[in-house]
Amino acid sequence: RKEVEQDPGPFNVPEGATVAFNCTYSNSASQSFFWYRQDCRKEPKLLMSVYSSGNEDGRFTAQLNRASQYISLLIRDSKLSDSATYLCVVNRNTGNQFYFGTGTSLTVIP
Amino acid sequence: NAGVTQTPKFRVLKTGQSMTLLCAQDMNHEYMYWYRQDPGMGLRLIHYSVGEGTTAKGEVPDGYNVSRLKKQNFLLGLESAAPSQTSVYFCASRTPGQGAFGYTFGSGTRLTVV
Question: Residue range B78-91: average pLDDT?
Answer without folding.
Answer: 97
